[in-house]
Structure formats: structure tokens, C-alpha cells
Amino acid sequence: MRIEKEADLTNYTTIKIGGKASFLCFPSTYEEVYHAISFAQDKDLPVFFLGRGSNTIFGDYKGVVIVTRELREMKVRREGDKVYVSAECGVLLSQLIKLAVDMNLQGIYRLAGFPATVGGAVAMNAGAFGCEISQHIKSLLVMAWDGTIERFSAEELSFGYRSSPFPKMGIVLRADFEFDIADFDVKNEYQLIKERRKRTQPINMPTSGSTFKNPPGTYAGELLEKVGMKGYRVGDTALSDLHANFLVNLGRGKFTEVIKILQEAKKRVYEEFGIELEEEVRLIESCGAYGR
User: Fold this and answer.
1) pTM beyond 0.85
2) Where are the catalytic residues (predicted)?
3) Are residues 165 and 140 in the same domain?
4) Are 54 and 208 spatial neighbours (Cβ–Cβ below 8 Å)?
């Protein structure tokens, strides 16, 4: 297993902002995942599992970052009007969506444009346009923090809005999905969603995606725009002038700039509307802990 020491995290997140991690580990087997966890435990260091880093921003992290990108096996089988897909945690969500479009499968195509891995998408219960990835999960293969591996059915797991039992209960090694074949042309719907994202989101810039969760009954982006945060900039980091709920890196963005922007955004929204915004993006720095 490849291990890097004092590794720069900038290129391991989609927003291209990052400090350094004490160690980066790149397991390619489940046994190596366990070795990486044990490596961290032996050094009494916290652990963070990372896929594409599409909703993650790092400061300096005195811990072990375990990158799952090399766990990328995917298997497909069709039974009647259903398709079953088994995907390891490092499989790109875009691969799963391409398969869904090619096979005309319902639901998951709505997540088009998420630059995530399957493991990351499951851990945050990624969702958009009325679809959450948890709706299609049949079972998950999970490694607990003590190294034991167990399979859980969807009924045994509790998912919520942008939340899941992971990584608190362990790391998702593999996800088994069940999809229905659609009775309409999925490709047309998929193209419409891609075009909408292109019009309304800064997809061609380094970004961490949605910054805050939507409060009940409203949208974080609308609240941020109403309080003048659209385009708000500190240094080389800003809330996009295309979509106020998207952080973007304009060049050499810094973690400290991110913190200042988020603090100002939360302050303004609370003062104007009495609503406390909750981060959807994960802010990771030295004080991390196991299972975070």
C-alpha cells in the first residue's frame, strides 16, 4: 500500500484548497483498508476517508487520510425489468450514472454532475431533483473501525437529508443497488439536468458544491442571495456569482478564507431571518476524530 507523509491535500478535493495531512494512504484491497486504519490507531492519529473530495475542504490535518479511489470494481446483472449493480466505494458516481443512462434506469440519473465516488455519495446520502442515492441501495458491505466486515440491508440503515450512519459506524466498502428500467427516455431527462446545472452552477470552476444544507421550506441559496452574499469574496475564495450556495476557488484560495466567508454568511442569514444555516460541506482540520 502506498503511503505519503506530510502530503499536500490541494489536489485531493474538487475546490483545490487544502493544507497538509500527516499521512495519505491508498489502499487497493479491503485488507489494506484495515491496515491503514491500524496504521492510524498505532500512531494514535485520527482517520478521514476521502473519495473525490467533492464536498470536503481541508486545513492542516494531523491525521491519516485514507483515499479510496483504487477500490473501483463494478459488476452489473439484469433480471427481468430490474438491474442490480454492485460498486466498490471508489467507483466514480459518474460511471454509475453513465451506466444508468445507457441502460435507461430510473432515478439515479438525476444525480448527474456530482463529482463524487460511490462511497462518498452514500456517506452524505447525495441527492438532487427528487432522488437520493439511498433510495436505490439494496445492501452495503461495511468495515467497522475494529476491522470486522458485515453486510447490512437497506432496512437496517438509517438515512436522512444529506446524512447517513457513515463514517460513524465504519467505512462503506461496497454498495449494492437495485434499479428499475424506465418506461421513458432517461437520456433526454439526463441532458436537461446537465444543461440546468451548467446554467445555474459554477461547474467549470474549482468548487466544493453546495455549501449549506437547505433549511426546511426554503433554499440556502435564496437566503444567501437575499442577504447580499452572492459573489461575496475574501481573498481568492468566494460564494459564486452564479449560485450563492456554491463556494469557488478563484486562484489560490485558502482554508482561512473559507471559514471567514461561512461565518459571515451564517451571521447575515441568522440576523435577517433567524435561521441557523448548517454546513453541507465538510470542513476538516487538526481536531478530527475516528469516524469523522
Assistant:
1) yes
2) 162, 210 (proton donor), 280
3) yes
4) yes
